[in-house]
Amino acid sequence: MELGTLGIKDIQEGLQKKTFSATELAEASFSAIREKDPKIHAFLEVTENLALEQAAAVDKKVANKEKLGALAGVPSALKDAILVKGVRATAGSRMLENYTAPYDATVVEKLKGADALLVGKTNMDEFGMGASTENSAFGVTRNPLDEERVPGGSSGGSAASVAAGEAVIALGEDTGGSIRLPASFCGLVGLKPTYGAVSRNGIIALASSLDQVGPFARTVEDCEIVFDVIRGKDPLDATSVDAQVQDPNFKIQNLRIGVPKEYFGEGLDPVVGDVIKNTLKKLEDAGAKLVEVSIPHVQYALAAYYIINTSEASANLARYDGIRYGFSKAGNTLLETYLESRGEAFGTEVKRRIMLGTYALSAGYYDAYYIKAQKVRTLLKQDFEKAFEEVDVIAGPVSPFLPFKIGEKMQDPLAMYLVDIYTVSANLTALPSLSVPAGKAENLPVGLQLMAPAFQENLLFKAGSVVEALK
């Protein structure tokens, strides 16, 4: 059985018709993992016993003609920053190498409640700090479409697992592009929901005001089904919102697509720009109206993002002190224990961001850096609000360049940070954003990014479906 050819509805139909069983679906996933993962390294942990127990429960429901959950029998992978009770959760770091989650994240409870099969935990950049999944303490993940290239990051393992046909859907977590970038690089659909649309309870935090959990899938339809399962207010996450889902009266002929002039200037690889422009032209030919808009403060978004990201990371990662939990290396004094534990267990990028964030929050620099970055965030939010007065969605590239080769940018942190130049604005402004395959350049996938006003994910799915149909 080839999982790469099955969508969620295909699986539901096959189970009902008894074409295959949930146990056979689980076995197909494990077979693909055994065959492909030694090269790709998408998974850090395979939860075979858990998935087979869940599959047996689904098969029992089918036999008893009970109602099946929305994700019944669907092999599902989870980024290793998402807690699954009784399973290791490393966040890609030596610091948490032996940490076992004591409870399920809310999104995991929802997946289990929908009868999904949880097949394993996927590789990621350490604590979500990276755009290539090269910063994991447990090795690099390769792009299944070209094994010499990165799958994007930080949720690269989740994207690679779906692109390789090891799982049908996966969850990632997006702080500045960590779902959309791997989706673009691996030719998938990926959603960064509105901040608050999905609970963050049980997610290992990087930057609490930016992080958001979302799905990877091969189709827009599957992405929407998963989002509908995991969204909603959670009493365990005070930032979550019970937003009313708006089902837009959608016609492509009525769609106004904003095209920011700032997204097509210096820094954009011409071959990527050509694919995006070609897709926008096809949308226009299909009846959509293209409107040039301006996001004047977007030029400051990346700088503001990295100040806020590193500041919040330095605060969140203070809990890993070698005392309470995680890796510990005893020193002669308490301070030595802190220094030895953090110095040995944290990777280079994590140390870099902790130092940058601590500096930005320190006395004498707090106003100059952190407060100024928050002011830019407000201005950027106002820019998007103004743009959405004229248009329904905003479109542009996900990445300024094609998937790059493993090792190509590792020695230049600033070059790596530039990968996020088009994606961080959605996190700073809390807006939903969808990456959908737009075509290929040099035989590598290019993703189109669509953004919408807050809690209008359904509009993104409708517009994304049109893009999908244009291929």
UniProtKB/TrEMBL annotation:
Give the top-rank taxon of the lineage listed in the UniProt record for this protein.
Bacteria
Any single Pfam family the record assigns to this protein: Amidase
Domain Amidase per the UniProt entry, residue ranges: 24-460
Question: Might you report a single GO cellular component term?
Answer: glutamyl-tRNA(Gln) amidotransferase complex
Q: Which residues form a coiled coil?
A: none
Biological process GO terms, please? Answer: translation
Protein name in UniProt: Glutamyl-tRNA(Gln) amidotransferase subunit A
What organism is this sequence from? Candidatus Wildermuthbacteria bacterium RIFCSPLOWO2_01_FULL_48_16
The major lineage groups are: Bacteria, Candidatus Wildermuthiibacteriota
Which gene name belongs to this protein? gatA
